[in-house]
Design brief:
Blueprint (H helix, E strand, L loop, with lengths): L2 H20 L2 H23 L6 H19 L3 H22 L2 H8 L7 H4 L9 H7 L4 H22 L17 H26 L5 H6 L1 H8 L3 H7 L1
Helix pairs in contact: 2-3, 2-9, 3-4, 4-5, 4-8, 4-9, 8-9, 9-11
Length: about 230
């Protein structure tokens, strides 16, 4: 079999996996819900599109789309890899919004995005200094979302690093796996929530009334129990 024939067969098998997912009502519902998060992320991006770090968030959204494509074709490990990168780039865009120097160094390929820095308990995007500088009213909730973020990142990382439970038993054919899709979708839910909290923590106090109105459904759906969010939309 030549290379083109080989990869045509790979694509055909991916289509078979997609059809299997689409025929499962629960799996399709979870996938559609995760797909619809794209609209939330694009709307968040549109409200900061004039800012220099917005392009980093755009890269994150692209990576989320890659993750969905991998999920749809049952390339599950790659779906988790791209989901983790989406999370890193999203939080990095928040961090860069507070430090143009860090953004410029990263764009010049002179600095890396480091997860432990992003979620540092003092200086990270959920940290005390960051929260007090931009949205102190959300400070009481920051540790909760930091803990959620670290747990979700760790679970994605198990697939990135090839932990034993992420492999199929020898001889097991690859294909649609309802349980793995559900695991990915649950992590996507958590990661979306953490990204929206980080976004609100950074930009809630500086968004125009028009953009606050545009984000009302997203903020109330995700963070509507928080007093600081209720105060904005009462």
């Amino acid at each position: 079999m030549n290379s083109i024939s080989h990869y045509k067969s790979v694509i055909e098998r991916s289509l078979e996996h997609l059809r299997a997912m689409a025929s499962d009502e629960d799996a399709l519902s979870s996938f559609n819900r995760s797909h619809n998060f794209m609209s939330d992320f694009e709307l968040l991006h549109s409200t900061i599109s004039a800012r220099p770090e917005a392009d980093v968030f755009l890269l994150a959204i692209r990576e989320y789309h890659f993750s969905l494509c991998a999920l749809a074709s049952a390339n599950y490990r790659h779906a988790f890899i791209s989901l983790r990168l989406f999370f890193e780039l999203s939080l990095a865009s928040i961090q860069f919004s507070a430090s143009e120097l860090k953004l410029r160094l990263w764009l010049a390929n002179r600095s890396d995005i480091v997860w432990s820095t992003l979620i540092h308990e003092d200086n990270g995007v959920f940290g005390a200094a960051f929260m007090s500088a931009f949205q102190p009213e959300l400070s009481n909730s920051a540790k909760q979302y930091s803990a959620l973020a670290q747990k979700a990142y760790r679970e994605c990382s198990e697939h990135v690093h090839g932990n034993v439970h992420t492999h199929l038993p020898n001889g097991t054919p690859t294909g649609f796996e309802k349980e793995t899709l559900a695991e990915w979708a649950s992590l996507a839910d958590t990661i979306r929530l953490c990204v929206i909290f980080a976004f609100a923590s950074r930009f809630l106090g500086s968004l125009s009334p028009e953009n606050l109105n545009r984000l009302e459904d997203i903020f109330l759906d995700s963070l509507g129990t928080l007093p600081a969010i209720q105060a904005v939309y009462r």
